[in-house]
Amino acid sequence: MGYIYLDNITVTKPHEEVVKTITEYLTDKYALATSQFSHSMGLESKEGYDNARHIIANSIGADDENIVFTSGSTESNNLAVKGFAHANKKRGNGLITTAVSERSVLNSMKTLEKEGFDVKILPVDENGRIKLTDLENSINDSTILFSFELANHEVGTIENYKEIVELCNKKGIAVHMDASLGYLHIPIDVKSLPVDLITLTAKRIHGPLGIGALFIRNGVKIKKQMDGGFNEMNLRAGSEPVALAAGFGKAVELFDREKDVVYTGKLKDKLLNLLRERIDDISVNGDIENSMSNVLNVTFHKVEGESTALYFDMEEIEVITGSACFSKSLEPSYVLMAIYNDHERAHGSITFSFSRYNTEDEITKTADAAKRIVDKLMEISPLK
């Protein structure tokens, strides 16, 4: 039996065509793109790099020069939050984000707070969304930026992003949308959605690890965070990752809503129905009605998420928990604590996430394994 991989919210299997594209650039077109003025191979690399930038820009209705390549969503979030704050601190020192934002945003905010910025963390409701009234009331004359996730990285809840962007525009503050989960699954057109900064990544759309991008709207000031050369419009120093960028572009080209959204939604529905048939004490976390089609976060009550995930691994089923094994501590999932303030619910959570490469047979085997695992853990649970 091979592994059943249901951790696609963390990283997806790269398409074969993506791997071939990367290999081609690593073996035959490996020159630096900045060598374009020195030799032909450099020019060939530059053309491939520019083409990838164009594909990604076009996918959100942007111009090529609005896309800055990074090493992934963590760097994009750091560049967006810190870069904007440092470049615009004369305008104000107020920054806002949400309690369920990704750690790279939350920790960037903590760093900026130590530098003297005024940081506000908004609570969320039972679905994992902020209340627009809370956002509106938190904005004052010193506020310059609000940062939020398009879709939550643990429970998959889709935020009310259009209303948020509209409110931020009305209040005259910049808005950063972390779309590292949700990119392509949720259509974005920056011509009609006036967001200032958008984080993008390849690893969740069957592209390569180690490459991401940041959309920066024309006129938005960003201060570079890493010294070096004048690469990426003088915003991101270092040699251009041509092969990874080409792989990122290929993954965008291969995205298929029928396979990547509709089909994964069917797998999600099937697993949830089977789990509910087999296991009595189970809760769905986040908003089941308006969430990512390929993400299902559930709590198996009275058992711990760490133990559950380990037992799934022993069954050769790869899932993830937001609880202690991830943080290397005894802390529950901070996302679920922010939503429910319930330690037992947060400790018992498991995220199943799906891709076009999963099968219905794998879903049935996963539900069967879940029944065996929960029954086994319930026998030794102190909470039963």
Key terms for this structure?
14% strand; Aspartate Aminotransferase, domain 2; Aspartate Aminotransferase, domain 1; alpha/beta; 42% helix
Q: Helicity range of the residues?
A: 40-55%
Number of helices: 14
What is the overall shape?
globular
Label the CATH architecture of the largest domain. 3-Layer(aba) Sandwich
Distance from first to last alpha carbon: 33 Å
Instruction: Report the order of strands and helices.
Output: EHHEHEHEHEHEEEHHHEEHEHHHEH
Largest sheet: 7 strands, mixed
Taken together, the total number of domains comes to 2
> What is the CATH superfamily label of the largest domain?
Type I PLP-dependent aspartate aminotransferase-like (Major domain)
Q: CATH top level of the largest domain?
A: Alpha Beta
According to DSSP, the number of beta strands is: 12
Radius of gyration: 21 Å
Low-confidence stretches: none
Would you tell me the structural class of the helices and strands? Answer: alpha/beta
